[in-house]
Design a protein that fits this description.
alpha/beta; seven-stranded mixed beta sheet; five-stranded parallel beta sheet; 20 helices; about 40% helix
Length: about 550
Amino acid sequence: MPDCLGIMARMYHRYFGMQEAPFSIAVNPRYLYMSDRHRDALAHLLYGVGSGGGFVLLTGEVGTGKTTLIRCLLEQLPEQTDLAIVLNPALNSQELLATVCDELGIQYGNGDYTLKTLTDRLHAFLLENHQRGRQTVLLIDEAQHLRFEVLEQIRLLTNLETNTRKLLQIILVGQPELAEILARPELRQLNQRVSARFELHALNQRETRAYIGHRLQVAGLPAGQELFPGRVVKAVYRRSGGIPRLINLLCDRMLLGCYGRNQLRVDMAMYRAATAEVLGAGESRPWAGIRPWLLAVLLLAAGLGGFGAWQDRPMFASPTPVLTPAAPAQSPTTPAPELSPSPPAPAISPPGPPAPVQVTPGPLDIYWEADFGAALGQLAKLAGVVGAGPDPACDTLPQQGWACLSRRVQTWNELLEYGRPALLTLVTEQRYQAFGILLSLSVDQAGLWVENRVVEVPIAELASRWQGEFTLIWQAPAGFSRPLRVGDSDPVVAWLAQQFAELDGQSQPLATELFNPALATRVKYFQRESGLSDDGVAGVKTLLKLQQALGQARSLSTTGNG
């Protein structure tokens, strides 16, 4: 039986009057859309290659067009250029030099070669090329995977020079962490030899529309024909994040669907079908890492046509503001719990198994504690605190290796960033202070922990009783007292690096007691995956999420029922 989808893929462009498929993900310099960023990047690269310096550096996220830009650069190199391309940098120093020699056609013997042999042969070739007026360029793609000793060997290659110029020009291409790697103190000699560097970013919405139009024009779309209406282009931009590779995949599949339905214009139904098929799974999805319940809310809001306005509203919007101001509570003064660093003795350990959960609907007024200590005791039991007692206080928890963290937020979104069961400070109808243990959140319901069961109450009703104050219990790392950032030297940094090593299954942590750029890059990626601001600073929210990712803490449930 013929592959109908394959046949359609090979011929659908003719249906629209084009000479070729406009959104192929194959690298083709003709389709390079020269945004302001790409134009600047190409200018920097051409300057770096022609300046006779040592290294040229191009970084950018996956799918931003680095390879296409490099192909365009290579096409503009002088004819008297010999080029060696290394596409698989997962090599040791000897293998890398052998690969470079193979690319340049340098003979080095059969199996008995050494680093010295390879270096000598390469040096002789470079000198001969220079005397013949030829230039030699080495391009290494995916360079973020290069080992330290290999990077050092590459640096040594740039020592091969004359009085006026380097004999070997090296172009390093990789993801953003490559720049962080080169910023390490031990690689400062290599980093100082970079004569030109540029980082590619994703397209903005205006550039996304121009990018789509550019590819259609290059493919031969007849003038005056609009295949992608503005609403679809905006949706493509939002879903792809402006990453050209994802834009290509979505647009290609939409045109295929348009052809299959015998239509001449893409609509939102085709967009949704293409999105489900292309981005329904895999790490390349911009929504990867977003909680399923949140994705459901996003899709619901988009389906109702209110996505643009919804972005600026609180997560759980209700007819009244989510956080309704209330008069000051008229109850005996309860000391405001603050963050207390734990002593160095206790280590972080997973909490005990949660108690059985029974979901019961009911009104709010009867589901709270009037006493802070009693409510804190229940929260401590849920968190797995051993020996806290039925009526603990925040100033005694550090003796158990735990700490209270009290904050005030403005929206449910901000509370969700902490991701832990929380003790909400509430105001009763009689204007007294009370406390409710929040264990779960859904779109319109909140789950409160009451006598070993979860009681669901409407979000709108709970919001009218809550001023935004909450307390949670966590195991702060020993000695942690402030956010950690690049340049900090502290034993807690070693703890943080070890936690990430365990999370990644690595035997060696990225740092010891010095917070280096490599650790900062790892923190940024984790923050991005966890829905936090990716500033690379390891604060309380980041540590809370990290403990949850390692299974060391119970999370605030957001699946609906706790």
